[in-house]
């Protein structure tokens, strides 16, 4: 083992010891019994439909059941409050990133949240959620609190089962045969997995617009996230059943963050610094009020195995399937090494949006991706040089940085059909 490797392993062991110690407290952190009385921002306590209604938007909640029984809440804003024309069709599906949920598209408020902006541009907007989030923590057979099998998933199952189920439901409800797709980070990753691993679903998409898509995460520069994702492949086999759900809403970390970050001063200092430990820094881009709100919904939960999967693909430098070990790989895949996902099967039009200051999905990873996909319409670099990964959801400047490009391509692949 190299000296550097020994240092990393020592950090992983220390991280694991702290993590297990914290779990030993059974995530007990009763901050208050009535959070609404403690000056929490209203939006941080709101679910998607409540958040939208806070600003005069009509939002619907729909229930989608996947082939393997996961129950997902999907939300729809059929027409934005500021839409003054005909509704553009086909419908648009907006998918969140890792440890986020549909709420992340509202957290920046009506002037900057992409769910508000897209619906206000007269698109029939649907906002999805994947298994393991607080909107995807149900199953027709499995109990997430008692059945370890519930948490036996990665972004592979999200792409192969969750996204196709949402697409089928949307098309059935709207009567259309195609839709447009906007995915951020993991939302891009699971789209490419869907195209690789299913038959016919990629063809149901007219255009896919990818914001910092996390396919091959070889060039990630966030030390904290590298440490976190490389920690899970090492220790995930040692977890007890109740430890297989990680970073859940209502868990120790999220409740602490929500409690402390509701304070305006702490939100603008300590909580802003916490975001920069994960991502890079973009001065003034994310408003303090947005930070106060977003930690009411973030982190939103996933499985330990999903984080391990990110760690595996990062260390391997390949966009490949899950590594179970040589013997099980041979049994499942017919080879010792996991096979690569077939990016050539994403043959529909794709737009890639990226930035140089993104240390979670590095620009080199996106430019590599542009050489692997057969039908890239444009690889667009955000003009704001300090633009970060989280800016795609939370920046006050989305309306002038990324939304015009999103709108350009949605409009190109849409038509007006009704008032």
Tags for this model:
alpha/beta; Lipase_euk; 38% helix; 15% strand; AB_hydrolase_fold; globular; 419 residues; two-stranded antiparallel ribbon
Could you please describe the fold and organization of this structure?
By secondary structure, the protein is an alpha/beta fold. It is 38% helix and 15% strand. It has helices at residues 3-23, 48-54, 114-120, 155-174, 186-197, 223-235, 252-261, 264-278, 288-294, 304-316, 326-333, 363-372, 391-394, 398-401, 403-412, and strands spanning 60-65, 70-77, 87-95, 123-127, 138-139, 179-184, 205-211, 245-246, 302-303, 350-354, 376-381, 415-418. Strands 1, 2, 3, 4, 5, 6, 7, 10, 11 and 12 form a 10-stranded mixed sheet that branches. Mean pLDDT is 90; it is low at 1-37.
At a glance:
With 419 residues, the chain is of the alpha/beta class.
Q: Give the uncertain stretches in residue-range form.
A: 1-37
Structure annotation, total helices: 15
What's the mean pLDDT score? 90
* Main sheet: strands, sense, barrel: 10 strands, mixed
The SS-based structural class is alpha/beta
- Name the helix and strand elements from N-terminus to C-terminus, one letter apiece: HHEEEHEEHEHEHEHHHEHHEHEHHHE
What is the percent of helical residues?
25-40%
The percent range for strand residues is 5-15%
Calculate the terminal CA-CA distance, rounded to whole Å.
Answer: 65 Å
Organism: Parnassius mnemosyne
GO biological process, one term: lipid catabolic process
Protein name: Lipase
Active site: 185, 358, 389
